[in-house]
Specification:
Number of helices: 7
Radius of gyration: 19 Å
Oligomer: single chain
Number of strands: 11
CATH superfamily: Hotdog Thioesterase
CATH architecture: Roll
CATH class: Alpha Beta
Shape: globular
Strand order of the largest sheet: 1-2-4-5-6-3-8-11-10-9-7
Length: about 300
């Protein structure tokens, strides 16, 4: 089977899984496995494949940040209930430089609710590892919210890799919204570059929709962080690796198109820092991100 056919089949599989309410299409498309979800800790994982590989053959940054975001959120939701809506308030990740290869496993742990807050603001931590060891670790905070008016949220299914395969969908069975996702996948496959980056959005631009949305229809927070980090990296000259990212969520990711704008604050010989903000509906600011980058060693320096 060609890579194109493998990816198209993966999209159809994700659509089949998405017909069970409770998760979002990006999570179903990647087939995030909820290996363990308990009040004492959670473990989520995802397997690599051509559908989520970047230009270097590693799992794309957006898949990693989405996995971390889900593990952080699951740690807090485990203290509440499986259908609870929680919105990301802040998220920070420190990277180790290890490659994003092999099965990625995210371990999350609940750290408590913010004392004295008017709402239920939960705090959690996460560590993500791959075939080469720990890839990143970090923290996040999430506010428990009521669902939007008129929307009923269902419990997260907590599907894992031991679950049976969904019934394979035929293209003629797809709904209008499902056909839009498949058409977007076909466009991404026809374009140059790696599939996942084109499917979820180009450099600094994300077309909002079910293909990149969360459970309430807003742009998924982990995907937005990766878009911001990639936008920042594009502004740097030379070879750099993402060292750390700190994100503050200001408003929901609404609007037909979300855009990232980056400015390099500092670029030295060894380190660089950039500030990125993401805007959505009516130019409203959705996300503010600060990223730190480390200069990659030249080949002659390694010898």
């Amino acid at each position: 089977m060609s890579a194109r056919d493998t990816i198209r089949r993966r999209v159809l599989r994700g659509l089949a899984l998405n017909r069970t309410p409770g998760l979002h299409f990006p999570g179903n498309f990647l087939d995030v496995s909820f290996d363990r979800v308990a009040r004492g800790g959670v473990r989520l994982s995802l397997d690599p494949g051509p559908w989520c590989a970047d230009a270097l053959g590693e799992t794309d940054l957006a898949a990693l940040t989405m996995l971390a975001d889900l593990a952080l959120g699951a740690s807090i939701r485990a203290q509440l209930s499986r259908e609870t809506r929680i919105a990301t308030v802040s998220l920070a990740l420190q990277f180790t430089g290890a490659p994003r290869r092999g099965r990625l496993q995210a371990r999350g742990a609940f750290q408590g609710f913010f004392a004295g807050a008017a709402g239920r603001l939960g705090v959690s931590r996460v560590s993500v590892s791959g075939a080469g060891g720990q890839v990143c670790y970090g923290t996040g905070s999430f506010m428990a919210l009521l669902p939007p008016k008129g929307l009923t949220l269902h419990p997260v299914p907590l599907r894992n890799r031991r679950a049976p395969e969904p019934r394979r969908l035929k293209e003629e069975e797809l709904s209008r919204e499902e056909r839009k996702i498949l058409a977007r996948a076909d466009q991404a496959l026809a374009a140059r570059g790696n599939f996942i980056d084109r499917f979820w959005g180009g450099e600094g631009v994300l077309k909002n929709g079910l293909h990149a949305g969360n459970r309430v229809g807003h742009a998924q927070g982990g995907i937005l962080i990766a878009m911001a980090a990639k936008s920042a990296a594009a502004r740097l000259s030379g070879a750099w690796s993402l060292g750390a990212v700190t994100a503050l969520y200001i408003s929901p990711g609404e609007g037909p198109t979300l855009r990232a704008t980056s400015n390099v604050i500092h670029q030295g010989r060894l380190t660089a820092v950039a500030n990125t903000y993401v805007t959505g509906k009516n130019g409203r600011r959705v996300l503010e991100v600060v990223t730190a980058h480390s200069a990659l060693a030249r080949r002659e320096e390694k010898k």
